[in-house]
């Protein structure tokens, strides 16, 4: 469902066409990408409601999706991150990012971040697709990650929110 941001009135309902429940989505103002337990992603134009591409995510449930320009990323239950060309619908690459489920992907200034059930967050260089930093400290699966210019914020099944200094990479605050 699409809601108006000022009035909170329902604008439209979009049915991407998944064969199973939708687990995650990302909206860039023009398109919405959805990830499903049917192991597919669907890129849909919000205005026309036309499905632009269907992406096959292998044999694993999609847990997180992210669209940044022509780049689409998806993460799954087995720790993989897939890179897709949103314009052409073609697969670009795939990496084994973690040994456990990648629950969330975030993007910031040419880097992407993965939050996983192995209790770590990894920062990745987008060009080389290599891990440049690992943040550890949570005692349970990490469910979400948000990134700003100076901080990384994570939340976990351990009941804590951790705020990390992006510049110095140390944990700056723990909230329970």
TrEMBL record:
Keywords noted in UniProt: Repeat, WD repeat
WD repeats mapped onto the chain: 95-134, 135-174
InterPro entries (UniProt xref): WD40/YVTN_repeat-like_dom_sf (IPR015943), WD40_PAC1 (IPR020472), WD40_repeat_CS (IPR019775), WD40_repeat_dom_sf (IPR036322), WD40_rpt (IPR001680)
Keyword Cell membrane annotated: no
SMART domains listed in its UniProt record: WD40
One Pfam family of this chain: WD40
Record-given protein name: Uncharacterized protein
